[in-house]
Specification:
Beta-lactamase; five-stranded antiparallel sheet; three-stranded antiparallel sheet; binds 6-diazenyl-5-OXO-L-norleucine
């Protein structure tokens, strides 16, 4: 079966499901998104791209942005990143505070909220949120080769207003001396990078460097070393879906990063970068139909890494 047929079938079957999960309701601006939307894009290592559904509709990438900020942090700090955050799965919800108390305020990994807040602090390096955000946005635009990508300010404000849990995580880490900038600056940076809006076409393109050992296989731009690309993929596999990471590895078998906007970026090493979006989430906050779509795609292509 050809890729376009596979994607069209996924949209016609899974994309039409009645059992779509719940949109994120703790961020008011995400709570009002129509759950009846679905998109998938596949950017192949050989340069071909395939799309089906609403693949040019923008959505809030939310925690998928944590892959971009981790990559920037590794570029700036190298292995010193691991003094700020660990690299083990947490087994706890993405916004959990419990583990921080037991482990001296050091987040278990860079993808749980606490870890991503610590990474935002790490990449600021004395700069203002605006400058840091410009850097993050530039990196994402460079990867996606699309300068139109921007931050949805209404989502960022909505997160700011309802972000008590994230503020707690940040202050708690600060109490251990782990935050080097004013907490409100770090939170502002974090909320805004989570509020980057992208579509599946842009996101699949932006993930291509992780398909081919750190180099975009189409533009031939080297983004990170091959070792770093492998390590980012391993973190996505182990931690990219929070306490649902084991389930995702079991069902899909690819490194992946999810966001509460309903997007998932999955990497089939050597093969393709896949972005899928459906706003309804499962119990642990990962896109319900997005996961099903990836499961189906991997069954049809044999792309599981296992
Ligand atoms: O901080 C938050 O809660 C959101 N900005 C991001 C959380 C998220 O995307 C978790 N993913 N499934």
């Amino acid at each position: 079966m050809y890729m376009q047929e596979i994607l069209d079938e996924i949209v016609a079957t899974i994309g039409q499901s009645d059992d779509r999960g719940q949109v994120a309701n703790y961020i008011p601006q995400l709570a009002c998104i129509d759950p009846n939307q679905f998109a998938i894009s596949v950017a192949m290592a050989d340069g071909r791209v395939f799309h089906a559904g609403l693949s040019d509709t923008l959505f809030s990438i939310q925690s998928i942005s944590k892959m971009f900020t981790l990559t920037i942090a590794l570029g700036k700090l190298g292995d010193a990143v691991w003094n700020k955050v660990g690299r083990e799965p947490s087994g706890d919800p993405f916004n959990s505070i419990v583990q921080l108390e037991h482990e001296n305020g050091k987040p278990r990994n860079p993808f749980i909220n606490a870890g991503a807040i610590a990474i935002a602090d790490a990449i600021m390096m004395g700069h203002q949120p605006k400058e840091t955000l410009a850097e993050i946005l530039n990196f994402v635009r460079f990867l996606a080769e699309d300068d139109s990508i921007s931050i949805d300010e209404t989502v960022a404000q909505s997160e700011l207003k309802t972000g008590d849990r994230n503020a707690s995580l940040a202050h708690f880490m600060a109490s251990f001396g782990h935050i080097n900038h004013p907490v409100d600056h770090v939170l502002g940076t974090y909320f805004h990078h989570c509020s980057i809006a992208m579509n599946c076409q842009q996101l699949a393109k932006a993930g291509l460097f992780l398909v081919a050992d750190g180099m975009d296989p189409v533009s031939k731009k080297r983004v990170v070393s091959s070792q770093r690309a492998r390590r980012i993929n391993s973190l996505m596999l182990m931690c990219g879906h929070y306490d649902g990471s084991g389930e995702f590895a079991f069902r899909v078998g690819l490194p992946g990063k999810s966001g509460v906007g309903g997007g998932i970026l999955a990497i089939a090493p050597g093969k393709a970068s896949i972005a899928v979006w459906s706003p309804g989430l499962d119990e642990v906050g990962n896109s319900k139909l997005g996961t099903q779509a990836l499961e189906k795609l991997v069954q049809q292509t044999g792309w599981s890494i296992f």
